[in-house]
Amino acid sequence: MEQMDKKLSYEEAIVRAGDTLHRFPLMKIRGIPLMEHIAQNWSSIWAFRPDPSDLLISTYPKAGTTWTQEIVDLLLNNGDPDVSKRAPIPVRIPFLEIFSPPPIPSGLDLLKDMDPPRVIKTHLPIQLVPEGFWENKCKVIYVARNAKDNLVSYYHFDRMNQTQPEPGPWDGYIRKFMKGDLGWGSWYDHVKGYWKERERRNILYLFYEDMKENPRQEIIRIMKYLDLSLSDDIIDRIVQLTSFKAMKDNPMANYSFMPKPVFDQSISPFMRKGEVGDWANHFSPEQAKVFDEDYTRQMEGVDIPFRSNI
């Protein structure tokens, strides 16, 4: 009952705050552009102290975050679909750094009301992750998506998310992405930062493309990282429950609980395509050439095995 009350209060809070929500500007924290309300509350975010049992799921925006959250929640709850539908995903797995106008609870507010072990979401680049996660040796799952598909997905998300800066025209958005002038900064620095620290900090580094190609294999990798052991039948059920179609139809995962003034899904659905290679439908040959040349320069000396097609 308590969880149901939280779900209702979260949804109602967003509706009630509707008039105060708008496209917030970006402000820089240690050189990283973050949404204004995150930057204004940075000291409390940076001071957050996780429990050693807490798990952090980190991604650059639109790299498979919600998908990974749903997989982890099902793994931790023995693949029980009813448990995973107990509340909207931001209530089940709070977004560490998110702050919105009252009465919407912040990620820190939600975490305060939860007992460890907790699962926590972040988009912060590794240098902005509160130090307590490393000091307490918390487990961290990082998911990376190839740059072009990530860019396309972020562009459509910024079109429909009425609290993020106006994306502007597609060609200009490509340039913003290359320069790192988007919320949470540079994709290049983000994926490289976690990659370089993955062994030293015991980070499970996953690729979106691997999850699409062989979801069962990657779910088992996550299960083992979490020191869990579930039967083949439960794994198969989790594969099915976290398919793109199943999640698109799941109101606790598809963000349909967000009102139109916040997420206008008539512009673009939150669960849009979930494909690998959709970038080819957006980039002109000239845009792809410019992007690829810049990508080679920015990723020089780093051998991260990204795939733009599978």
TrEMBL record:
Protein family membership: Belongs to the sulfotransferase 1 family.
E.C. number(s) listed in UniProt: 2.8.2.-
Gene3D superfamilies: P-loop containing nucleotide triphosphate hydrolases (3.40.50.300)
Pfam families: Sulfotransfer_1
Residues in Sulfotransferase domain copies: 52-301
Principal location listed in the UniProt entry: cytoplasm
Protein name: Sulfotransferase
Keyword terms of this UniProt record: Catecholamine metabolism, Cytoplasm, Transferase
Subcellular location: Cytoplasm
Source organism per UniProt: Alosa alosa
One Gene Ontology biological process: xenobiotic metabolic process
InterPro entries: P-loop_NTPase, Sulfotransferase_dom
